[in-house]
């Protein structure tokens, strides 16, 4: 059998996308090995999920470091030591210093709750509603030093309904996020997805538009 892709996950919150990744692994649809789940918050629910699943965990307090680059170098040093092949940001609420990211170019994914390039940063559901958008969604992209600005890989779309508020929109989007992220990680695990000089490559060919999540997966 091929060696499973070794992945590390960074999360700041409850870890629902991490739970989706673990569930996909347990279902046999995601051939990965979790080597580390790390957080900038010792109280993060994601760490408790990882502990329950027998995954090594790490919590580092940014306030214990003199500046962001020092914290990020320590964090990424620990990720490197874990032996991870791929790093997945699943609700990690910090901007990462470019010098720490550079050695990991093409090996870091992020899921963001908007149809990028719309609404980088925070409060994406509120901003979509305030703009009167007809649809909202989530995006998975390769991470660069530009906030939520790396090359797009795939998206999930959701119609905004009359009466939606931030809470209902977020709640309806989450199940799509939980399908989208494992589907993209599965492409990496199958060696079908990469970042090259020409941008995102799927099966060796440039991806000219983000893949879309449909009823039967990415298309």
TrEMBL record:
<feature type="domain" description="Formyl transferase N-terminal">
    <location>
        <begin position="6"/>
        <end position="185"/>
    </location>
</feature>
<feature type="binding site">
    <location>
        <position position="110"/>
    </location>
    <ligand>
        <name>(6R)-10-formyltetrahydrofolate</name>
    </ligand>
</feature>
<dbReference type="InterPro" id="IPR004607">
    <property type="entry name" value="GART"/>
</dbReference>
<dbReference type="InterPro" id="IPR036477">
    <property type="entry name" value="Formyl_transf_N_sf"/>
</dbReference>
<dbReference type="GO" id="GO:0004644">
    <property type="term" value="F:phosphoribosylglycinamide formyltransferase activity"/>
</dbReference>
<dbReference type="Pfam" id="PF00551">
    <property type="entry name" value="Formyl_trans_N"/>
</dbReference>
<dbReference type="InterPro" id="IPR002376">
    <property type="entry name" value="Formyl_transf_N"/>
</dbReference>
<keyword id="KW-0658">Purine biosynthesis</keyword>
<protein>
    <recommendedName>
        <fullName>Phosphoribosylglycinamide formyltransferase</fullName>
        <ecNumber>2.1.2.2</ecNumber>
    </recommendedName>
</protein>
<feature type="active site" description="Proton donor">
    <location>
        <position position="112"/>
    </location>
</feature>
<comment type="pathway">
    <text>Purine metabolism; IMP biosynthesis via de novo pathway; N(2)-formyl-N(1)-(5-phospho-D-ribosyl)glycinamide from N(1)-(5-phospho-D-ribosyl)glycinamide (10-formyl THF route): step 1/1.</text>
</comment>
<feature type="binding site">
    <location>
        <position position="68"/>
    </location>
    <ligand>
        <name>(6R)-10-formyltetrahydrofolate</name>
    </ligand>
</feature>
<dbReference type="InterPro" id="IPR001555">
    <property type="entry name" value="GART_AS"/>
</dbReference>
<feature type="site" description="Raises pKa of active site His">
    <location>
        <position position="148"/>
    </location>
</feature>
<comment type="similarity">
    <text>Belongs to the GART family.</text>
</comment>
<comment type="function">
    <text>Catalyzes the transfer of a formyl group from 10-formyltetrahydrofolate to 5-phospho-ribosyl-glycinamide (GAR), producing 5-phospho-ribosyl-N-formylglycinamide (FGAR) and tetrahydrofolate.</text>
</comment>
<keyword id="KW-0808">Transferase</keyword>
<feature type="binding site">
    <location>
        <begin position="15"/>
        <end position="17"/>
    </location>
    <ligand>
        <name>N(1)-(5-phospho-beta-D-ribosyl)glycinamide</name>
    </ligand>
</feature>
């Amino acid at each position: 059998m091929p060696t499973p892709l070794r992945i590390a996950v960074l999360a700041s919150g409850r870890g629902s996308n991490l739970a989706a990744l673990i569930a996909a692994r347990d279902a046999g649809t995601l051939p990965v090995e979790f080597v580390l789940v790390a957080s900038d918050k010792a109280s993060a629910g994601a760490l408790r999920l990882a502990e329950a699943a027998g995954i090594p965990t790490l919590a580092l307090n940014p306030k214990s470091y003199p500046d962001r680059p020092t914290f990020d170098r320590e964090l990424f040093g620990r990720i490197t030591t874990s032996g991870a092949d791929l790093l997945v940001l699943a609700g990690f609420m910090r901007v990462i210093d470019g010098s720490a990211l550079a050695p990991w170019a093409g090996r870091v994914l992020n899921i963001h709750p908007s149809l990028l390039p719309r609404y980088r940063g925070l409060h994406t559901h509120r901003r979509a509603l305030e703009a009167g958008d007809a649809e909202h969604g989530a995006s998975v992209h390769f991470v660069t030093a530009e906030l939520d600005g790396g090359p797009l890989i795939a998206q999930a779309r959701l119609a905004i309904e009359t009466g939606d508020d931030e809470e209902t929109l977020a709640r309806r989007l989450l199940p799509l996020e939980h399908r989208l992220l494992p589907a993209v990680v599965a492409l990496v695990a199958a060696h079908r997805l990469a970042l090259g000089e020409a941008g995102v490559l799927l099966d060796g060919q440039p991806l000219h538009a983000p893949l879309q999540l449909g009823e039967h997966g990415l298309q």
